[in-house]
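user: Please review this fold.
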Amino acid sequence: MEILQKLNSPVMYLICGTIVLFAAVICVLFGIRAYRAGLRIGMDPVKLKRTITASVTFAVLPSIGILLGVIALSGSLGTPWPWLRLSVIGALHYETQVAEAAAEAAGLHSLSAAEMTPSAFSTIALLMSACIMWGMVLSIISLKSYSAKLKSGGTANKQNKKSAFSGFGDIAMTAMFIGLVSAYIGSYIGTLVSGNDVLNFSGSPLPLEVAIVGAAAMACFIWISEKKHAVWVDSFSLAGSMLAAMTAAIFLANL
């Protein structure tokens, strides 16, 4: 039996599908409990429904790109494993990069089914899982104290006192987001200037062009929301910008 037949076997589907189903059920249960908790503390039902709409939109539209990632990885890792990795805890850019690095470390020339071996798959699957598990581990250790600080910060704000912790949290999240965007933009500019392999887009302006399209789409959403007083647009701005950027990537790549 070939390696892909083993990776696409009913046993693999059963194992991975059970985990995905468990995670989906947990999400539904926590969503219901969160909605009821919001009503109990007096949150506006309209705002809660808007939050749910925005969350669903944000989850559905980017999942198109994730589905493409599952399809791309399934050619070398089978369908169940990429489906599991990108459904529970994972990110498209993370999974592909780690899989390629692990394949290289395992002695493969490329991440392909032609070179895949059981030992190489084991190495790839282990690294894909182990390298991203620390968010869960840190949550077990520090989430309780972190939640307590958030609650104390909320109490201080209600008393019209500025919470140093909540202020730091806002600044830290903003700084992290700016740093992440800057790192990607910087890498795009660096590879463009270096002029590396154009066929792999490492020396192509495509990433920068897509980033500009995404930023322009977000600017349009913000303009509509603020100037036309269409507040409902905020619920779709992020997902819409991502969809516009993905569409631009497909269109520009074929020019």
Remarks:
- DSSP finds eleven helices and no strands in the chain.
- The longest helix spans residues 10-40.
- The CA atoms of residues 98 and 227 lie 43 Å apart.
- The radius of gyration is 22 Å.
